[in-house]
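Hey,
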Amino acid sequence: MGSPQWSPSLQGGTRQSRALLLLPFVLIAVVTTVDIIAPPDVHLGPFLVAAPAITASFAGPGLTSFVGAVAVLAQATVAVTRTTITDLNHIYQIVALFLISAIATVFALLRKRHAAEMVQLRSVAEAAQRGVLRPVPPRSGPLRLASVYMAAEAGAQLGGDLYAAARTPEGTRVIIGDVKGKGLDAISSAAGVLGAFRALARQESGLASLVARLETSVAAHQIDSAQEAADENIAEGFVTAAVLDIPDAAPVLRLVSCGHPPPLLLRAGRVCPLDATEPVPPLGLGRLTAGRIEEDVFSFDAGDMLLLYTDGVTEARDGSRDFYPLTERVAALRRESPEELLKHLCADLLRHAGGHLGDDAALVAIERLPATE
C-alpha cells in the first residue's frame, strides 16, 4: 500500500454509460415511428420532451442541446408525414419541444458547473488531507505494516480519519482515530492529534501517560477553536482513538481504547476482537470523567497480524442496508502480508457497499515477523 488514499469509484461503468447515451435516441426513434403510424386523433409528440430531459440528467449541455435538436427534427418529420408543417397542433408541439430542450440545456450547464465546483472542493480537501495523513512505514523493528485511506464518494468534504506509527527506542507506537465531523475542521483536528502523537510518542515512557497528554492536547485545541469561533460549546468535538504500544523485545501489545472500535487479532486462521476491559472516553471528553487511564495487555506473537480500522468500515452498508461483517470477512480473506490483507479487504468492502462508501474509512494492518527476519 504505497499510497494512503484509495478512490472507491468503480471503473466498470462503460456499458452503462453507453446505454445511457443510446436511451434518448432510442426513445426518439420509437416515439417518432409510433406517432407516424398511429391513428390521426392520436398524438405522441409530447413524449419527445423526455429525450432532452433525460439527457440533461447525466450529460453536458452540448449533448443535451443536440438531443433536443434531434427531437425537434423528429417532430417536424412527424408533422410533414402526417399532415403539414404548418399544422397548428404540430407548430405548438415543435415550439414547446424547442423551449423545453433549451431549458434542459441550461439545466445541464448548471449541473456541469456544480459538478466542477464539487470536484475542485474535493481536490482541495484531499490535498489538505494528504499533507496531514502519511502512510505508515513498511517496516518498524520486527513489525511489517501497511495502511490505506478510502475516501467516501458522498459530497466534497472528507472525514477526520487518522493513523500514524512512531518508532521508539523500545518498540513501535501506533494510533488510529476518527474525528467527529467533516471537512477542513475535521482535518485540522486530525492534524493536531497526529502532530501531538508524533511529538509525544517518543517522550512519554508509559502508554497511559501518552494518552493523558493527547487528551490535554485535544482539549486545548478545542478551547482555541471555540474561542476563535466565539462558541463556548466545546463539548461537541471529540476524537475516538486506539493507541497501541508494541515492544520489540516482548511478544505482547499494550492498548488504550478511547471509545474506538476494537482491533482485530488474526492468529492461526482465527479472528479475535481485542476488547478493552476499561475503555476511556474519546479524546476531548476526558474532562467529563475523573477515571484513571488503564492499559490492556494482549499477546502478539510472531506470525500474528493486527487489523486497526475506523467505523467507516463496519458501518458500510449493502443494498439491503446490512452492515459490513468485518470479522467474518477478514477470517475468509487471504493474508500472507499486511499489504495482501488490505488489498483483498478493500476490494471486498467495495463489493459489499456497491462501489461507493458512505463514510471515509481508514485501515492499518500490522504483522509481527519471526526473530530471524
